[in-house]
Amino acid sequence: MTAPPPSSGPPAPPSADVTVVVASRNRRDDLLATLPRHEAPVVLVDNASTDGTVEAVRQAHPEVTVLPLDRNAGAHGRTLGAARARTPFVAFADDDSWWAPGDLAHAVEVMRAHPRLALLNARILVGPGEQLDPVCAEMARSPLGTDADLPGPSLLGFVACAALVRTEAFEAVGGFDEVVRFPGEEERLALDLAAAGWGLAYVDDVTVHHHPSPRRDAPGRRQAGIWRSRLLTAAMRLPARDVVRTAGQAVRAGRPGVEGLLAALPDAPAALRRREPVPASVRAGLRVLAGESR
């Protein structure tokens, strides 16, 4: 990954209110480039890397709290990192992303000004060309509208590497779980926050930079992983008819959907043990997002 040079101005002072939690696996070089960019204390959760990540980070960045895991916990590693952070707010970043200078402090201000806001999704600029991530354009025109007590359009999903969470709310709904893991881990958490009455919002004047690492899963494998997460989330939080419908959609999606369905089956018992369907109000929001009538 080639990142642009750091800002020439002085960085914003670290806030005692926020910690940046980074979960990573086998991306040592990406981490060494992005860790100096974070303007708050960092907890690095290493998902059992085999490329010397832990030793390299401890040597180059002794100020970073490193939490090495003996197995790949996927997105649940972020939950473990948030527990270690012990700050009112936690910002998530990937090993190939970072919050723009000064914007993390601004995001905390926004959260403090909106006490029902559990999760803020920042604007994401991708690559050296700083192109707006298409998902941000979708969030900006969310059909859920903007609630009066939120700073931007309401959401029922988010992008983890551009999220700032209120730790109280995040922990109350269990954070990222051990069943869904990664990718597509955001949906279940978003549904549970909404079900608990918290707000999620897209805030366009806060920016995260994302320079995708060259060390990434092939697109087909990633799509299969997303289908796996979608199916397990449905099993945990949606009515039975919606679980069946999601399974049908996976089959019709071709190879990635079928592979995702097969990958979900071993974890289906664990998902069903955690089954707690969301209320009708949240399901109505999902129908609006899907372009269906209420």
Instruction: Name the beta content range.
Output: 15-25%
Distance between the termini: 45 Å
- Class by SSE composition: alpha/beta
Order of helices and strands: EHEHEHEEHEEHEHHEHHHHH
> How much is the average pLDDT?
93
Tally of contiguous helical segments: 12
Beta strand count: 9
Rg calculated over all Cα atoms: 19 Å
User: Low-confidence spans: pLDDT under 50, at least 5 residues?
Assistant: 1-14
**Percent in helix:** 25-40%
Shape: globular
Q: Can you summarize the main beta sheet?
A: 9 strands, mixed
What's a concise summary of this model?
Helices cover about 40% and strands about 20% of the residues.
Descriptive notes:
This protein has 294 residues and is α/β, with parallel strands linked by helices. Helices cover 40% and strands 18% of the residues. It is built from twelve helices and nine strands. It has helices at residues 28-34, 53-60, 76-85, 103-113, 134-140, 167-172, 186-195, 219-237, 240-252, 255-264, 268-273, 280-289, and strands at 18-24, 42-46, 65-68, 89-93, 97-99, 117-126, 131-132, 163-166, 199-210. Strands 1, 2, 3, 4, 5, 6, 7, 8 and 9 form a nine-stranded mixed β-sheet that branches. Strand 2, helix 2 (53-60) and strand 3 form a beta-alpha-beta unit. Helix 8 (219-237) runs antiparallel to helix 9. The longest helix has 19 residues, at 219-237.
Topology record:
Layout (H helix, E strand, L loop, with lengths): L17 E7 L3 H7 L7 E5 L6 H8 L4 E4 L7 H10 L3 E5 L3 E3 L3 H11 L3 E10 L4 E2 L1 H7 L22 E4 H6 L13 H10 L3 E12 L8 H19 L2 H13 L2 H10 L3 H6 L6 H10 L5
Parallel strand pairs: 1-2, 1-4, 2-3, 6-9
Antiparallel strand pairs: 4-8, 5-9, 6-7, 6-8
Helix pairs in contact: 1-2, 7-8, 8-9, 8-10, 9-10
